[in-house]
User: Which sequence fits this backbone?
């Protein structure tokens, strides 16, 4: 069992004691997903839970006029569908893969059974849920207060940190969906970020980011929320006797970055 999970890349699974993780292991199936794969559709019952190992997914709010806007991004630090452990429920959002990756999949029924038996599993669900709510609250405030250009820089930084790659497979259509704006608005924002030397883009749908320059153009929301989430994971999981797992390394948790943000 120890050898099998020695290379666990999902932070929630890695934080569990081996005895608690053993409740999930027989039911977990490794899957791959491509970009633009829909893992959960809005208003569908939550029947599955996905613990991400690589890639990134966006929680998208579908508006009546057909537009969408991202509320959160989740990578190997989190999961999709974990609230199904609380009982039958429908998803308020569509969960869409923005970057291809892999995940461990388990049915909601099997996950709920393990959840009822394990205080440790209940704890990671609570911590993860609070982290998602915190991100959602900050995104709502950011959308109301900051320009499209600064919000785009924030999303690009977060995606860069999740997948640890400077080349992001994002078309302008995907950016429009993340930001909830028209493609013409995205085109203008991309042009401004390119002129500032923060990104390079090509017709193949790849955006290469310059993290330091992009960070200087982004709003302070990302660093602030990631710092709070990192502290939440570290404090609450460690206080409960759980390992904190392989923490996602972001510029928001780097001491130099915290000092720079704090000076604003």
Assistant:
């Amino acid at each position: 069992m120890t050898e099998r999970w020695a290379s666990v890349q999902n932070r929630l699974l890695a934080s569990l004691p081996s005895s608690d993780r053993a409740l999930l292991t027989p039911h977990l199936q490794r899957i791959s997903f491509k970009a633009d794969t829909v893992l959960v559709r809005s208003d569908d019952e939550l029947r599955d839970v996905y613990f991400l190992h690589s890639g990134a997914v966006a929680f998208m709010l579908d508006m009546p006029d057909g537009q969408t806007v991202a509320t959160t991004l989740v990578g190997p630090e989190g999961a999709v569908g974990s609230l199904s452990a609380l009982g039958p429920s429908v998803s308020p959002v569509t969960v869409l893969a923005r970057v291809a990756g892999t995940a461990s999949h388990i049915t909601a029924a099997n996950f709920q059974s393990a959840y009822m038996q394990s205080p440790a599993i209940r704890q990671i669900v609570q911590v993860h849920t609070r982290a998602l709510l915190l991100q959602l609250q900050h995104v709502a405030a950011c959308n109301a207060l900051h320009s499209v250009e600064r919000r785009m820089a924030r999303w690009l930084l977060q995606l860069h940190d999740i997948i640890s790659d400077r080349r992001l497979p994002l078309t302008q259509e995907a950016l429009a969906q993340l930001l909830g704006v028209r493609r013409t608005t995205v085109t203008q924002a991309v042009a401004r970020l390119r002129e500032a030397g923060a990104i390079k883009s090509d017709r193949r749908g790849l955006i290469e980011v310059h993290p330091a320059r992009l960070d200087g153009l982004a709003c302070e929301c990302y660093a602030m929320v990631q710092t709070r989430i990192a502290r939440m994971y570290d404090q609450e999981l460690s206080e409960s006797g759980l390992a904190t797992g392989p923490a996602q390394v972001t510029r928001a948790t780097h001491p130099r970055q915290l000092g720079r943000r704090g000076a604003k």
Summary: The mean pLDDT is 85. The chain has ten helices and eleven strands. Residues 12 and 124 are 6 Å apart (CA to CA). The radius of gyration is 18 Å.
